[in-house]
Write a structure and sequence with these properties.
Blueprint: E1 2-15, E2 18-23, E3 26-32, H1 39-51, E4 55-56, E5 62-64, H2 66-69, E6 72-77, H3 99-116, E7 121-123, E8 131-145, H4 146-149
Parallel strand pairs: 3-6, 6-7
Antiparallel strand pairs: 1-2, 1-3, 1-8, 4-5
Length: 150
């Protein structure tokens, strides 16, 4: 599984003009599920996300986690994180998990974030065309990949 984590001051996601998820300070997390992923990857990724220390402490160092600052999370599914662009000019997505598997692991990731102690976890709509508005803070953007975290 992959997560592109962006530290934000605020963010929202809309589907067909209707806001379906909105947060204040915290993370926007774009999540992509690969064919080989399972429940262990969802749990690992959620733990790393909740405990990623990229918020500034009193001295200005990135030393605090989402849990430490009581931040929110807006989680959006994004199969394109598994795009293969090595050949040609159009990416292929054969590494991405089939929709039913991906949705199950996406939902497990969301629930694992809540269980880790993130009190506000909002989501987009799985497989919908979404408009994501982000006020990136820093900017701070980190890629987490369970293949590299093990």
């Amino acid at each position: 599984m992959r997560a592109l984590v962006q530290r934000v001051r605020s963010a929202c996601v809309s589907v067909d003009g209707d806001v379906v998820g909105q947060i204040g300070t915290g993370f926007v997390v774009l999540v992509g599920v690969a064919q080989a992923d399972g429940e262990d990857e969802a749990q690992l990724l959620a733990d790393r996300t909740a405990n990623l220390r990229v918020f500034e402490d009193d001295t200005g160092k990135m030393n605090l986690s989402l849990l430490d600052v009581g931040g929110d999370a807006l989680v959006v599914s994004q199969f394109t994180l598994h795009a293969d662009c090595r050949k040609g000019r159009r990416p292929n997505f054969v590494r991405a998990a089939p929709p039913l598997d991906a949705e199950r692991l996406y939902e497990l990731y969301v629930e694992a974030l809540r269980e880790a102690g993130v009190t506000t976890v909002e989501t987009g709509v799985f497989a919908a065309k979404m408009l994501v508005e982000i006020a990136n803070d820093g900017p701070v953007t980190i890629m987490l990949d369970t293949d590299e975290l093990r």
